[in-house]
Amino acid sequence: MSQMCFAIFVGGNSTTWFNTAVLVTCMRNFPRSRGNIVGFLKGFVGLSGAIFMQIFFSLLDKNAVKLLLFLALGPAFVCFFCMGFVRPVPPSTGGSLAELDEEKRQFWVIYVICVALAIYLFIAAFLDKFVINYSISLTVAIVMFLFLIAPIVVPVRVFLGILLPKKGDFLLDSSYQPSDEPDTKRSAVDIINDNLTTNDEDLSFQGPKFIEAEEENTELLLALGEGAVKRRKRRPRRGEDFKLKQALIKADYWLLFLTFCCGIGSCITVIDNLSQLGQAQGYSDVSIFVMLNCIWGFLGRLGSGYVSEHFIRATTTPRSFWIGAAQALMVIAHLLFAFAVPGSLYIASSIVGLCQGVQIAATVPTVSEVFGLKHFGILYNFIILADPVGSLLFSTFLAGSIYDAELIKEYGSAAAVYDTACTGAHCFRLTFLLLAVICTAGVVLSIILTVRLKPVYVTLYGTQDSTNASYSSLPSQDSYTLMPSVESTSSASPPVQFVFPEMSSSATSDPDGQ
């Protein structure tokens, strides 16, 4: 027992290290396609269960000892082989529409390969139940490995294109210089990403109604250096880089945490109790439900990354909207579990996998967009704490307690329920009715979060026209008066200019008109 606990402890913590290293690096390497990147990476995490199960069936003869040996050596070998490729690569500073279109085309190739792999594993899962032949199983496994290594054609093609540029291929030609003409269709986040190679201090907000001084007054700088004047540090705004301590005092961060906890906690409850769910409904083998959950979880991650990225660019819809939509769909799945409709376990387990994938793929880039990429690793890992917290609350305390109570009610005493299983829809009915209520609360929280984050996404991803429209409540340009410049003692320093809004006569007079 102690050895098993230690193995689970080491395995569970090691996944966090992999997640942080790979996810943070890739998010910074592809800042303009965060949804797509998270969809790919988290998608294969969800699909890994189906992949290992296929290996277990096809190559390991369903031998548990061989599976443990493979899990001990296989991932370690892959990590040592691939660790040199996981490194920060500065993104291109051009960011033209042509480059973005080329990047989308490369992602589409990977999308097609991934969807084909998921469909193939879906078919192979049913094939293994009816066809028992080693040669066929070996062929299935070989084709699966070919699908797994197929995405490598994309970076190889790009690399070869750089070495051997085609005539007239301006995307791969290093001598090509993008046009200096302004592109009004580019979003604010694309413009900011063009300056990723510069220091954070060099980035300044370019609002439509503000004039910012280029340099500080020399006397003021001297006073600051001598300690005579203390400058108050401005707290970061949403969309800028937050530290964990700064994010923890933001309502949006806790709304995202609670929303994710409601959704992912109920998903983990289903996965943890899938074996008991199958037994309660009369299924002796639940491997097909595990496979369905993994495959649809992969499709949910992959689809959420693409769909959320598309609607962000098209309508600046916050990704939290898709978290709420997934939890609304989960309410239906929980009701199917609660009433145990014949054959509903196939549909419900697939819905749970799909919704789990959507929530994970939407939550991760939301953290980076609202709270920045600089401290993304710790901010993301704190949000992921909602996973074990939800599992403890909903799976251990809620589902476990109700299941034991139903067993005692069915068999009469606590001693008689040892190593027995509860059968019938009543075993989990109350659990999933409560989980449906919890997911409904998650939908309400996600709606509140979406409304709060809408202005942030308009600023980050809206075009220049929509971004300026978000500041329509500000006074007009005519209502600002340029004050006389403060003379500087140094001729090298330009004067500092201050801008104050003009006050109308009605605003300056007192209420009594005196």
From TrEMBL:
Q: Where is the signal peptide?
A: none
Q: Identify the Pfam families for this entry.
A: NFD4_C (PF23262), Nodulin-like (PF06813)
Residues of the Nodulin-like domain: 2-156
- Tell me what topology the record assigns in the membrane: Multi-pass membrane protein
Gene3D superfamilies xref list: MFS general substrate transporter like domains
Where's it mainly located?
A: membrane
Q: Give residue ranges for domain NFD4 C-terminal.
A: 242-454
One Gene Ontology cellular component annotation? membrane
Coiled-coil region(s) at which residues? Answer: none
Could you confirm whether the keyword Cytoplasm appears in this record?
no
Cellular localisation: Membrane
Q: Which UniProt keywords apply?
A: Membrane, Transmembrane, Transmembrane helix
Q: Which stretches are transmembrane?
A: 39-59, 65-86, 107-127, 139-164, 253-271, 283-300, 321-340, 379-403, 430-451
Indicate what this protein is called per its UniProt record.
Nodulin-like domain-containing protein
